[in-house]
Amino acid sequence: DIQLTQSPSFLSASVGDRVTITCRASQGISSYLAWYQQKPGKAPKLLIYAASTLQSGVPSRFSGSGSGTEFTLTISSLQPEDFATYYCQQLNSYPPWTFGQGTKVEIK
Amino acid sequence: QVQLQESGPGLVKPSQTLSLTCTVSGGSISSGSYYWSWIRQPAGKGLEWIGRIYTSGSTNYNPSLKSRVTISVDTSKNQFSLKLSSVTAADTAVYYCAREIVGASPGCRAFDIWGQGTMVTVSS
Hints:
Helix content of chain A: under 10%
Oligomer: heterodimer
Radius of gyration of chain B: 14 Å
Order of helices and strands of chain A: EEEEEEEEEEE
Number of strands of chain B: 11
Radius of gyration of chain A: 13 Å
Shape of chain B: globular
Largest sheet of chain B: 7 strands, mixed
Number of strands of chain A: 11
Helix content of chain B: under 10%
Largest sheet of chain A: 7 strands, mixed
Distance between the termini of chain B: 39 Å
Largest interface: A-B, 29 and 29 residues
Strand content of chain A: over 45%
């Protein structure tokens, strides 16, 4: 299985901060990486696919980059509604599709 | 727009079979280049992909669960289903169904639509 390691696992930030989350894959996955946002009690929501393509309807303050084994999700100016847990997912090599362990973004 | 809704028992006894159905509304399960997946999430933990099905009936399963999992599709009802046999307390989780998009461009795969999730507890 391809392992995805997110860092940090926990992040405390203030409204307006620039936030970056990293996802590292145990082997190359080209650009087959997606990012999701999950709020408590809710299903994950797709933010970015193909490493850097913004899903329709997602605010432009979210951006993704990377290829191969290292990827980043950046929130350019953190908003109150962005406090959530973020997951990366690889869809290059199956079975299985795998997810990172998650990064929880909390209010400082 | 397309919506997914999970349904099934919220409580299953140990050693029995967990059965869930995902109903697709707002579009045909057979249209487009989509796979249909099941994912689960134990309380306070991360996401685990269980498996997927294409409308042709072709399936792929997580090797860690493969011996216990069956995913099937009923295109006439616009539904797909999950069966997980010989359950234990470790199978207690929120179970989600989701649509996987498959695009022509490199990297163009993701789960773009999710159901709201259904909690399943394994307990006697």
